[in-house]
Amino acid sequence: xxxxxxxxxxxxxxxxxxxxxxxxxxxxxxxxxxxxxxxxxxxxxxxxxxxxxxxxxxxxxxxxxxxxxxxxxxxxxxxxxxxxxxxxxxxxxxxxxxxx
Length: 100
Known about the structure:
The chain has 100 residues and is an alpha+beta fold.
């Protein structure tokens, strides 16, 4: 298993556009042996220490293999809607890892 963590920062006013992209992208994850484990919008009150701008959303996704993740990223249906992602996301951190 590989794990993908994303910290997502939106362009102000693009929440609806981002949600449109997510409504397409999230169901496609399962097609590639993946599962969305966590999708959260952290509240300011939940931060214990913060030395960077808090993200709009945090995602934790697992895929069976690195190849499954790569195939998800180039999925033709997902690529049709990637313009919505580009229109709504100002910045994102993508962190790859494995379970310890």
